[in-house]
Specification:
single chain, mainly beta, seven-stranded antiparallel β-sheet, six-stranded mixed β-sheet, 15 strands, globular
């Protein structure tokens, strides 16, 4: 019996090292729209309050056990100074056909201040850093196992092909995040990234909605950016 108890304690200790004690990433309840071929994942790294000395978002996405997004994946990012593309559409930047060719280019993770960011961007005077990355899926089914992981400081919201699929819970981020939506507007929220190598992700499992090409452009849509123009930026 003593050996069993000791083994249990060891397992708990290992688990505490693998999964952060403040694991708060939650699925939105929406099915993740995923197509065979190219798709878009977008993430907002969110500060807790003005003056924060660090900010981080690293994303991992696995489909049927295959990693399609991870640390080092090519991405674009921006520290927004207003809603993008507009106050009427503050999350339009998460849509596949949004034109991000003027954003900074690099690799996940994104952020600043704590030595775990490949694309250093942002500062403590603004609430968010936005990021976008294209990933390819060889095969997808409605019953595919999709696992989304994030390592982040202080908060995050993540979209796939324009649909919010996960965010950190217990923050003051509104239902529709805007460029100046801090995680802590009185809640006392705080969350630290793992700063491990490789990153220690908090995971959620997502249901799937199989869709057609999310980058398809209707001929009459003269303002839309073609997929070729978007991909040229990567």
């Amino acid at each position: 019996m003593k050996l069993i108890i000791q083994a249990g304690i060891v397992i708990l200790m290992i688990a505490s090292l693998i999964m952060p004690a403040n694991a708060l990433l939650e699925a939105s309840g929406e099915k993740a729209p995923i197509a065979k071929g190219d798709n878009l994942i977008a993430g907002a790294a969110v500060n807790d309050s003005a003056g924060s000395s660090d900010l981080t978002l690293i994303i991992q996405l696995k489909i049927d056990g295959k990693i399609v997004v991870d640390e080092g994946h090519k991405c674009t990012a921006i520290q927004p100074l207003e809603n993008i593309p507009s106050d009427k559409d503050p999350t339009g930047w998460t849509q596949p056909k949004f034109d991000d060719k003027d954003w900074e280019k690099g690799e996940y993770g994104v952020g600043y201040g704590d030595g775990d960011d490949n694309l250093i961007i942002g500062n403590g005077t603004h609430a968010m850093v936005y990021s976008r990355a294209i990933f390819e899926v060889k095969s997808i089914r409605s019953n595919s196992k999709v696992e989304l992981g994030a390592d982040f400081d202080d908060g995050c919201v993540i979209w796939i092909n324009g649909v919010e699929v996960a965010r950190e819970s217990n923050t003051d981020i509104p239902d529709e995040p805007e460029w100046d939506s801090w995680t802590d507007k009185g809640s006392g929220h705080s969350h630290e990234a793992s700063k491990t190598d490789p990153p220690t992700y908090e995971f959620v499992e997502l249901d799937v909605k199989v869709i057609g090409n999310p980058f398809a452009v209707e001929p009459a849509d003269k303002l839309a950016t073609s997929w070729g123009e978007i991909k040229a930026g990567y």
